[in-house]
Amino acid sequence: xxxxxxxxxxxxxxxxxxxxxxxxxxxxxxxxxxxxxxxxxxxxxxxxxxxxxxxxxxxxxxxxxxxxxxxxxxxxxxxxxxxxxxxxxxxxxxxxxxxxxxxxxxxxxxxxxxxxxxxxxxxxxxx
Length: 127
Prior knowledge:
Elements: H1 2-25, H2 34-56, H3 62-76, H4 79-91, H5 95-124
Helix pairs in contact: 1-2, 1-3, 2-3, 2-5, 4-5
């Protein structure tokens, strides 16, 4: 029961952060979902930073890692929104936007993960 509460509180915080950041980033007239792309890149970076740090040193207690990764970042990242928006581009025949969005999301989130691992390895002095 304690784990459920920890994840739930993290999810509550993550959802609010996602809403605030998405609202701040996305302009009313924009059709390209910059806010979803940005949230996925930031979420990928932070999640991998936490996980790689935990892999090399046990810096976070299990409850903290669960709060941050499953709860907060699970609610913060937006894969379901990404999938829906990708499908809508397909449905509207917007293949250039669809390609730009899918490739941008995949490439930038993988770069964010690589960057976070590079940072952790540099700080921890491990390989």
